[in-house]
Automatic annotation (TrEMBL):
Keywords, sorted A to Z: Acyltransferase, Phosphopantetheine, Phosphoprotein, Transferase
InterPro entries with a match to the protein in the record: Ac_transferase_dom_sf, ACP-like_sf, Acyl_transferase_dom, Acyl_Trfase/lysoPLipase, Ketoacyl_synth_AS, Ketoacyl_synth_C, Ketoacyl_synth_N, Malonyl_transacylase_ACP-bd
Extent of the signal sequence: none
Stored PANTHER family: FATTY ACID SYNTHASE, INACTIVE PHENOLPHTHIOCEROL SYNTHESIS POLYKETIDE SYNTHASE TYPE I PKS1-RELATED
Protein name: Type I polyketide synthase
Domain Ketosynthase family 3 (KS3): 1-420
Length: 982
C-alpha cells in the first residue's frame, strides 16, 4: 500500500492550545478536566448524582478554552455571518490554516489545487439550536449549520478544488476522515489532503444520553483499561493534519512526523447490539491493516487504543488485541489511550489519537496513559501480549511501528498503522537569514511579530538561515509584511523596534505581485575597483563564488595570471589597467549573473564604459569566453600606452564645460554622468588649464586617480591594434534591452560589432543620456549596480530617477560584510515580490523548519443569548490604538452625513460592522466578506431604503462595486440622477 506522509499538525485540545502544549500534557500525564463552563449550560439544572431520567450524572468534562473567539477579519467573513457559524466551523478554519503552515506550505498557495478536505464530525448542537429557531432562521444561519459545511467552508475559503467531505461515523469519524484522505491520495484524486476532526459540547443532550445509557463516568473522567473504569468522560477538541504521498513529501523536502503504512475501516455488522463493540470485527480490522502494511503483529511496538474506559468496551478491545498480539515473541505490545488525558472527544477522538501516535513516533517516546491507580487485572493484558504504558516508554532508536484504533458507536471502525518517518537531510548551517512575517492588518502583523521574536530567542544561531527560509515560503502572502535580514540578535532587535513603533522602513502593505520584479542593471566603470573586492561575499555565497570562478577561469588565459589573487589583493597589480578592467569585468559579471539567476525581470542594462562589456555578455550578445577576450584585449592595449594624462570631475552643466574647454584641443569631455556631473580627460597641461577656467567660473573640480586619460584622443594609438585583434567579432541579439553609453540610446545587440567597441574607446561616456532613454521606455521597480561599490546608483538618482524606483546594493564597498544579496531578498520580499531565494541565499538551506503558526486575533467573540440573539463582544486590546505606524493610512474620506452616511450605515448594518471600521478602500468581498448571499441582502436593503434604486440589478451594480467607496459612489450617482441625493 502506498505510504502516506503526515507533514503538518495543529490541534486545540483540552488543556492544550497547540500541538507542543498537547505533547507536554501527554508527557506530564495531565488530566485536563474541569467543571462544565457556565457558558455552556447551567450544570445545576441537569445534574443528578443518581442519573435520574433527563439528567446527567456528572458535573465535569474536558473542555477547550475560548471557543467563542474567532478572527473573522482574517478569513474575510462578515460579523453577521461569523455569529451564525457553528463554532466548530470557525475553529476548523483556524486549525487547518495552522496545520498547513506547519507543513511548510503557504496556505494561499493551495488555491486552485486539487487539495482534498475530509472532516470527521458527529454532532452540531449549535446548528440544532439555529435550525429549530424557525422565526429567526436566516440564510447565514443555514450556511452556518450542517455537517456538510464543516469541510466545504475550508475548501471555499482556501480555494481548494479537491474532494470536500464531512464524515459522521460517530466516535470513529475523524480517523475515518484520515483513512479517506489517504485513499484520495493513493487514487490520485488529490495531491495534498487536510484531514480534520471537531467536537464541541454546547448542550447537555449527549451527556444525558450517555448517563441514561450507562456509559457516563460520575467523575467525568475516562480511565482506559483501569481497575476503576466506570464509563467515559466527555471531551472536546479540534485538530487537523496535512497528508501527502511520501514520495511527494520527500521530493519537496517537507518535514515529516510519521508515515501511514495502511489504514482500513469496517463495520461490526449485526452483533449483540448496535451500540456494543464486536471483538470479531476489531480483529478482522487489525489483521487486514497488518496485511496491507505487509508487517507482522510482532513488529508493532505500541497501539493507541480506542480505550474509552467502559467495562464492556475495554474488555472487548483487550480481547481483540490479544487475538492479534498474544502469540508475539519478545517484548509485549505497549498499550495507550489519550482519552485518559483529554476525555472521549467523540467526533475528534480518532484524530486526537492519531496525532498522539504521530508525535510519539516523531519524538521516539510513548507517553504514559492515565488509567487510574491500577490496571484492570480482569483484562489479562500480559496474557494477551500487551502492557499498559504506565510511564513514558522510549521507542527503538532505529524506528518503530505504531497502530491507532477508533471505534464508532453504531459499529463503524477505523484502524491505521504508522511508522517512524524516514531520516531526512539536516538543515544547512547558516547564521544569517531573511525573516518574513505577514498578516492582513497592521495590528495582526505586530501580534505575529511578537510570536516570532519569542521563537527566535530560543533558536540555535546556526539554524537561522534555514528557519528564516521557511518563513519566506510560509509567511509571505498576506498584504502587510515585515521583512528583515541579519543574524539572530539583529532579527530580534529589528522586530522589537517594529513592536515599539519604529522601523517603518521594514514593513510594506502592498499586495503580493504575481510578476517578477523589474530591475534595471547598471555595470560599473573603471575606477571603482579596490583590493579584496567582494571577498566576504565570495566566502559566504556559493552561487556568487561559482560565477566569479567561471569569469576568472575564462580570463586567466588572456591576462596570464591568477586573476582571483589580484581581485582579492593577494598579488599586486589591480591598479594597472591591464588587470583592473578584467578584474572589474569578472566582479560585475558574477554579481549580475547571480542577480539574473534570482528570477527577476531585467528591464534594461547600462554599462559605464568598460561596464558595457559585462552588460553585453549577460544580455547574451557575447559568450563569456568572447567577452573575456574582448575585455582582456582592450585592457592590455590600453595598459601598454604611455602613462600620463589627467582626468577631473566637474560640477557644471555640459554646455558650460563645452564652452570652457573649446579652446583646449588637448582635452575634452570624457563622460556626462548627470546634468551637473561631467568628466574631462586629456593631456595633463590642457586639463590643468581647463580646471583653472572652471574654478574661475565658480565651478568645482576634483582630480581623479587614473593611470591614463581614458576616453580622450590619448587613447587613439591603440584603436587600430584593437580592431585587428578583435576582427571577426560576431555579436548576437540581446536578451534584454541594452542602452548604449556610446550612443545614448537603446542599441541592438547586432550593432555591437568591433566598430562599436573601437569607437567606444575614445568617445565620451553618455551615461546620463542612456539613463534618461532607459527611463523613458518603461519604469523599473528597482535599479541595481553590478559592481564592487555603488558608484553609478547615486549618479542615476541625481539624473532624475523616479523616487518609486528603489536602489539595490549588491556590494557596498570595502566595508562589505557579504550580506548585501540577503538585503536584496529582504527588499524584494517586503515589496511583495518572490525572487528565487536559493540564489540570493547562495544555495539550499536544507529541509523546511517548523516555525510558529499564525497567531489569530482573539478580541472578537461570537456567542448566543439563547437560540435567537447572537452576541458579538469585540474586546479592546492594547494592540488597537491610534497612530499605528504600519499599514494603510487612516481613511479620512468616510462619508458620515446625509445620504452618503446612510449608505455607509446600511453597509455596516447588513454585515454586522461598526460604521467606524468601514473606510472607502475596504473591499466588499475580500475584506468584509460580502459573498453572494450578503450581496443580495445588501441590494434588497438598498432598494427598500432608496426608491430611485428600485430597479437596480445585481449585474448592474456588483461588477463595478469592488470597494465600499465604489458602492457609495454608485448609489450617490443614481440618487443624483433622480435628484434625491441631498
Amino acid at each position: 500500500m502506498m505510504p502516506i506522509a503526515v507533514v503538518g499538525i495543529d490541534c486545540r485540545l483540552p488543556g492544550a492550545p497547540d500541538k507542543d502544549a498537547f505533547w507536554r500534557l501527554l508527557m506530564d500525564g495531565v488530566v485536563a478536566d474541569s467543571e462544565v463552563p457556565s457558558q455552556r449550560w447551567d450544570v445545576d439544572a441537569y445534574y443528578r448524582s443518581d442519573g435520574a431520567p433527563g439528567s446527567t450524572n456528572t458535573r465535569r468534562g474536558h473542555f477547550i478554552d475560548n471557543v467563542d473567539t474567532f478572527d473573522n477579519d482574517f478569513f474575510g467573513i462578515a460579523p453577521v455571518e461569523a455569529g451564525a457559524l457553528d463554532p466548530q466551523q470557525r475553529l476548523l478554519l483556524e486549525s487547518t490554516w495552522r496545520a498547513i503552515e506547519d507543513a511548510g506550505i503557504d496556505p494561499r498557495s493551495l488555491a486552485g489545487t486539487p487539495t482534498g478536505v475530509f472532516v470527521g464530525i458527529m454532532s452540531s448542537e449549535w446548528s440544532n439550536l439555529q435550525i429549530l429557531d424557525f422565526a429567526g432562521l436566516t440564510a447565514v444561519r443555514g450556511t452556518g449549520s450542517g455537517y456538510f459545511m464543516a469541510a466545504n467552508r475550508i475548501s471555499y475559503h482556501l480555494g481548494l478544488t479537491g474532494p470536500s467531505v464531512a464524515i459522521d461515523s460517530a466516535c470513529s469519524s475523524s480517523l475515518t476522515a484520515v483513512h479517506q484522505g489517504c485513499a484520495a491520495l493513493r487514487s490520485g484524486e488529490a495531491d495534498t489532503v487536510i484531514a480534520a476532526g471537531a467536537n464541541l459540547i454546547l448542550t447537555p443532550s449527549l451527556s444525558i444520553f450517555y448517563t441514561q445509557a450507562g456509559l457516563s463516568a460520575p467523575d467525568g473522567r475516562c480511565k482506559p483499561f483501569g481497575l476503576g473504569a466506570d464509563g467515559i468522560g466527555r471531551g472536546e477538541g479540534v485538530a487537523a493534519v496535512v497528508l501527502r504521498r511520501l514520495d511527494d513529501a520527500l521530493a519537496d523536502g517537507q518535514p515529516i512526523y510519521a508515515v501511514v503504512k495502511s489504514s482500513v475501516t469496517n463495520h461490526d455488522g449485526r452483533s449483540n447490539g448496535i451500540t456494543a463493540p464486536s471483538r470479531r470485527s476489531q480483529v478482522e480490522l487489525m489483521r487486514r491493516a497488518l496485511s496491507l502494511a505487509e508487517v507482522e503483529a510482532g513488529q508493532v511496538g505500541f497501539v493507541e487504543a480506542h480505550g474509552t474506559g467502559t467495562v464492556l468496551g475495554d474488555m472487548i478491545e483487550a480481547n481483540a488485541l490479544g487475538d492479534v498480539h498474544k502469540t508475539r515473541a519478545g517484548e509485549p505490545c505497549l498499550l495507550g489511550s489519550v482519552k485518559g488525558n483529554i476525555g472521549h472527544t467523540e467526533g475528534s477522538a480518532g484524530i486526537a489519537a492519531f496525532i498522539k501516535t504521530c508525535l510519539s513516533l516523531h519524538h521516539g517516546v510513548l507517553p504514559p496513559t492515565v488509567f487510574g491507580d491500577n490496571a484492570n487485572p480482569a483484562l489479562r493484558l500480559a496474557e494477551h501480549g500487551l502492557q499498559l504504558a504506565d510511564g513514558p516508554r522510549k521507542l527503538p532508536a532505529n524506528g518503530t511501528l505504531g497502530a491507532v484504533s477508533s471505534f464508532g458507536l453504531g459499529g463503524s471502525n477505523a484502524h491505521a498503522i504508522l511508522e517512524t518517518a524516514p531520516a531526512t537531510a539536516l538543515p544547512v548551517p547558516g547564521a544569517i537569514g531573511v525573516l518574513t512575517i505577514s498578516a492582513p492588518s497592521a495590528q495582526a502583523l505586530r501580534r505575529n511579530a511578537e510570536s516570532m521574536s519569542a521563537a527566535l530567542e530560543t533558536l540555535d544561531t546556526t539554524q537561522v538561515a534555514s528557519w528564516c527560509r521557511s518563513t519566506n515560503v510560509v509567511k509571505r502572502s498576506n498584504r502587510h509584511r515585515l521583512v528583515v535580514a541579519g543574524d539572530r540578535d539583529t532579527l530580534i532587535d529589528r522586530i522589537r523596534q517594529f513592536a515599539a513603533g519604529a522601523g517603518v522602513d521594514l514593513v510594506s502593505s502592498t499586495p503580493p505581485h504575481r510578476a517578477p520584479a523589474g530591475v534595471g542593471l547598471l555595470f560599473s566603470g573603471q575606477g571603482s575597483q579596490y583590493p579584496g573586492m567582494t571577498r566576504r561575499l565570495y566566502d559566504a555565497h556559493p552561487i556568487y563564488r561559482a560565477n566569479l570562478d567561471s569569469a576568472a577561469a575564462a580570463l586567466d588565459p588572456h591576462v596570464g595570471s591568477d586573476l582571483l589573487a589580484t581581485i582579492f589583493g593577494r598579488t599586486a597589480g589591480l591598479d594597472h589597467t591591464s588587470l583592473a578592467q578584467p578584474a572589474l569585468f569578472a566582479v560585475s559579471y558574477a554579481l549580475g549573473k547571480t542577480l539574473l539567476q534570482s528570477r527577476i525581470r531585467v528591464r534594461f542594462g547600462i554599462g559605464h564604459s568598460v561596464g558595457e562589456i559585462a552588460a553585453a555578455c549577460l544580455a547574451g550578445v557575447f559568450t563569456l569566453d568572447t567577452a573575456a577576450k574582448l575585455i582582456a584585449t582592450r585592457a592590455r592595449l590600453m595598459g601598454a600606452l604611455p602613462p600620463g594624462g589627467a582626468m577631473i570631475a566637474v560640477d557644471l552643466s555640459v554646455e558650460q564645460v563645452q564652452e570652457l574647454v573649446a579652446g583646449e584641443p588637448g582635452c575634452g569631455i570624457a563622460a556626462i554622468n548627470g546634468p551637473r556631473s561631467v568628466t574631462i580627460s586629456g593631456d595633463a597641461d590642457s586639463v590643468a588649464r581647463a580646471e583653472t577656467l572652471i574654478r574661475q567660473h565658480g565651478g568645482k573640480a576634483k582630480t581623479l586617480a587614473t593611470s591614463h586619460a581614458f576616453h580622450s584622443p590619448l587613447m587613439e594609438p591603440m584603436v587600430a591594434d584593437f580592431r585587428r585583434e578583435m576582427a571577426g567579432l560576431e555579436p548576437g541579439p540581446a536578451e534584454f534591452p541594452l542602452f548604449s553609453t556610446v550612443l545614448g540610446r537603446e542599441v541592438d545587440g547586432a550593432e555591437m560589432t568591433v566598430d562599436y567597441w573601437a569607437g567606444q574607446i575614445c568617445s565620451p561616456v553618455l551615461f546620463f543620456d542612456a539613463v534618461q532613454a532607459a527611463l523613458r521606455t518603461g519604469r523599473a521597480n528597482y535599479l541595481a549596480e553590478a559592481g564592487p561599490k555603488p558608484a553609478l546608483l547615486p549618479l542615476a538618482r541625481q539624473g532624475g530617477l523616479p523616487p518609486q524606483t528603489r536602489s539595490l546594493t549588491l556590494c557596498s564597498g570595502p566595508d562589505s560584510d557579504g550580506t548585501e544579496l540577503l538585503g536584496v531578498a529582504a527588499t524584494m520580499m517586503r515589496d511583495g515580490y518572490s525572487p528565487d531565494l536559493a540564489t540570493l541565499y547562495g544555495g539550499s538551506a536544507g529541509p523546511p523548519q517548523r516555525i510558529p503558526p499564525y497567531v489569530f486575533d482573539t478580541s472578537s467573540r461570537f456567542w448566543f443569548d439563547g437560540p435567537i440573539t447572537y452576541r458579538r463582544q469585540p474586546a479592546q486590546t492594547a494592540e488597537t490604538h491610534a497612530g499605528d505606524p504600519v499599514g494603510e493610512p487612516a481613511d479620512t474620506e468616510q462619508p458620515q452625513i446625509g445620504a452618503e452616511g446612510g449608505v455607509l450605515a446600511l453597509i455596516a448594518d447588513v454585515g454586522g460592522y461598526s460604521v467606524t471600521t468601514l473606510g472607502r478602500s475596504k473591499r466588499l468581498a475580500d475584506d468584509l466578506g460580502y459573498d453572494s448571499l450578503l450581496q443580495l441582502r445588501l441590494l434588497d436593503r438598498l432598494r427598500a431604503e432608496y426608491p430611485p434604486l428600485h430597479d437596480i440589478t445585481v449585474a448592474e451594480v456588483l461588477p463595478r462595486s469592488h470597494s465600499v467607496g465604489d458602492l457609495v459612489d454608485f448609489v450617490m450617482e443614481r440618487l443624483d440622477e433622480g435628484g434625491t441625493a441631498r
